Amino acid sequence: MKYISTRGQIKARTFVQAVIEGLSRDGGLLIPAEIPDFSNRLARLQDLSYTELALEIFKPFIGDELPTETTKRLVENSYSTFKTPEITPTTFTDSIAILELFHGPTLAFKDIALQFLGNLFEEILKTEKISLNILGATSGDTGSAAIHGVRGKAGITIFMLHPKGKISPIQEKQMTTVLDDNVVNIAIEGTFDDAQRIVKDIFTDLEFKDQYHLGAVNSINWARVMAQIVYYFFAAFRFQEKYPDQPVVFSVPTGNFGDIYAGYLAKKMGLPIEKLILATNENDILFRVINSGIYKIGNVTETYSPSMDIQVSSNFERFLFDILGQNGSLILEKMNSLTQTSEFQLSKEEVLKIQEELLAIRIDNNQTLETIKKYYDLGIVMDPHTAVGVAAAEQSDYRHVICLSTAHPAKFSDAVIKATGKEAKQPASLVGILEKESRCLTCHQEKNAVKKIITEKLTLEK
Length: 462
Ligand SMILES: *Cc1c(COP(=O)(O)O)cnc(C)c1O
Known about the structure:
Blueprint: E1 3-5, H1 15-21, E2 30-32, H2 42-45, H3 50-62, H4 68-79, E3 90-92, E4 97-100, H5 110-128, E5 132-137, H6 141-150, E6 156-163, H7 169-176, E7 183-189, H8 192-204, H9 206-211, E8 214-215, H10 222-242, E9 248-253, H11 258-268, E10 273-280, H12 285-292, E11 294-296, H13 316-323, H14 328-341, E12 343-345, H15 348-357, E13 358-362, H16 365-377, H17 384-395, E14 402-405, H18 413-420, E15 441-444, H19 447-461
Parallel strand pairs: 4-14, 5-6, 5-8, 6-7, 7-15, 9-10, 9-14, 10-13
Antiparallel strand pairs: 1-2, 3-4, 11-12
Helix pairs in contact: 3-4, 3-10, 4-5, 5-6, 5-10, 6-7, 10-11, 16-17, 16-18
The protein binds pyridoxal-5'-phosphate.
């Protein structure tokens, strides 16, 4: 399979190149040049296990760049760390279906993609005889999932920055109790924005970036999107077994648009999805663009669902590419406008086209807590991100919506306590975590101080 850029300014890439590069060199996002059609094979895929299904879905995207046996081993290793044999089980209530995506090592849906990406990186680096040093900044979820994805992997070192004392104690410990030699946690004396600015500054220092083989693991990596397609098929099959005559509708709590974009691709691949409900919290840029056609960056507000507290939704560009007739120059125009004026506009026809695929609903903080409480009283404990998706499903006219449950409630216990007065039950992986041995460097909010840590660590290794 060939991969092209949404901005159309580069030559096509291979799958391996797309995975290693992450972001396209023209600033765009890499997407497969063609979407494979599975519509004639759905019946055959229906009875496969999660890992068997993943292998079938990955095949056309990887092509012959990895031997099938290798992909199979990577997939099996990636999901052997999950706590349930179904990997992503669906549970049904009278009114909704809940797709549980939080059974991985860090209890959030990002594990599904990052467990696989870590193994894939290791394999590619070994074959290509290169090394990769990952640098990132996190406000919680992505950082811990990335660390657990690459811990102990040959050829990779990860440097993860977080704002000191400004992430939840559990999230901090999920990162800093990983004691593998290839994991370097750095607490920055500053805010998340400071940490992110340092990472951006270092990445624009191209000489340093190239010298130390620095790369990123953010949600724009194609392999992450690919890994997320699988559970849409898997859950839709479970749903159809229970409700053979009902349309399949998913509700997706959305931030960076990576998760819901995988759902859109599943539909393009032939999975009969009637609608994707895009649920946002009070950071509602996607809700606004889908209903008004104006994509305008506002200020980030803090909500109970912090992993969705973002304004610029990077993966939306991949979806927009289709809506704008796969015209890279048009995307480039919109993105330039975004850089210069913090906004761009879509036409009425384009908005209608988007609305055929997506129904956007915005859920505020109160509705989030009310939803947690309502389901708690029915015996179901959900985290605030999941609650945003469930609340949106309830506001829509659809019934028996499959709601993606993106985090374990114990990971966001503050919101659960606030809504119900009671704590969520802790899974085994969190019991005693606050007392475990941890390791973390502390550093000023200064680019050169971080560069020094990277240099020392990587020089030491040689
Ligand atoms: C990252 C995240 C989301 C948002 O997913 P996107 O792919 O960024 O839209 C939702 N819930 C949780 C718990 C997350 O960690």
